[in-house]
Amino acid sequence: MSGLLGRGGAAFPLGTKLRTVHEARTDTVVVANGEEGEPASIKDRWLLRNRPHLVLDGLRLAAAVAGASRAYVYVSDQQAATSVAAALGELPPDAFGATAVSVVTVDPGYVAGEETAAVRRINGGPAKPTDKPPRPFEEGVHGLPTMVSNVETLANLPFIQAHGGQAFRSVGTPASPGTFLATVTAAGRPTALYEIPYGAAFSDLLEVYGLSPDAVTGALMGGYFAGLVNTDILHTTLDHESVRRLGSGLGCGAISLLTDECPLAVAASVLAYFDRENAGQCGSCFNGTAAMSAVTSALRDGAATEEDVTRLERWSVVLRGRGACGTLDGATNIAASLLRQFPQAVQRHLADDCDTCRAHKFDALRPYEVEGLTR
Description:
Blueprint: H1 14-22, E1 28-34, H2 43-50, H3 52-66, E2 68-75, H4 78-90, E3 100-105, H5 115-122, E4 146-150, H6 151-155, H7 157-163, H8 165-168, E5 179-186, E6 192-197, E7 200-201, H9 202-209, E8 218-221, E9 228-229, E10 237-238, H10 240-245, E11 254-258, H11 263-277, H12 283-300, H13 306-318, H14 327-341, H15 343-350, H16 355-359
Parallel strand pairs: 1-2, 1-4, 2-3, 5-11
Antiparallel strand pairs: 5-6, 7-10, 8-9, 8-11
Protein name: Respiratory-chain NADH dehydrogenase domain-containing protein
GO molecular function, one term: 4 iron, 4 sulfur cluster binding
InterPro entries: Nuo51_FMN-bd, Nuo51_FMN-bd_sf, Nuop51_4Fe4S-bd, Nuop51_4Fe4S-bd_sf
């Protein structure tokens, strides 16, 4: 077995997804999810724009294992959609056998890439999450068992088919086999995309990126979802088990490096983003993201109290798991990790005594957004 884990954020084993859908013993559907709603990530867009045949070959293999009658490539990036459509036109008519393949486009949005939102959009509805159960593997596109998998995950299948699971496991770690695509950003520096083996040292990534460890004060991990980590990140390796031990996660592989920014101001900007981007369907998320955003913004501006911080700490616990999708969990991760990893920054702001924010207040609508790729 290859042990291939999902690259979309949750690191769920692909084999389990495929087996579950296959064992439904009925008509099935597979979806290549390339709706990269995470502003700090560019890996899926890069693959779809530059290696569309690799993704399509992985989708073909997944469809064959699942016994799918239909396959979809789900994207929001128009250049990616054009690239995939052109690649499909280059394939022979029988490339997917009896499986019909379609490209479905959607307006970009943080929640649009959630698996039930993808199913809902393909079914003709809005790209907003639905309550679970049922999950897509139980009832998805057109009511059929549906496997939704990230495009990077699928792009690993051709190698595994050609060389076998043991060859795939020859790099990485036992619990996190293979390689992954890491989007690395830092304020005022070019964005970079690297393919690196799981288990690589964080310090080695910094060396390749060309940034001294002395300049790094922490990181925002997994895009916005996995929260903030302090300088402990400098001494870890980049695999799921090691980053989880820090109370964080690799998620989609997007790593935003903190250098001169105040971590509390970064948290306030990310929570303001979650407040704007939530689907507006769940009261707990709609109100919870707004409340946590308000407290961190007040903290950033030196206008919060100890009671506000106590409320923020409570919300970061009791609101977890209460939304239909991961948006609220991402927001609670930001709040909890800020309080846990950067308590000194919180205390400085309670005293309205942050020299960093006094000199330059970090306030980005889409923090560490990737607009282009230079290397």
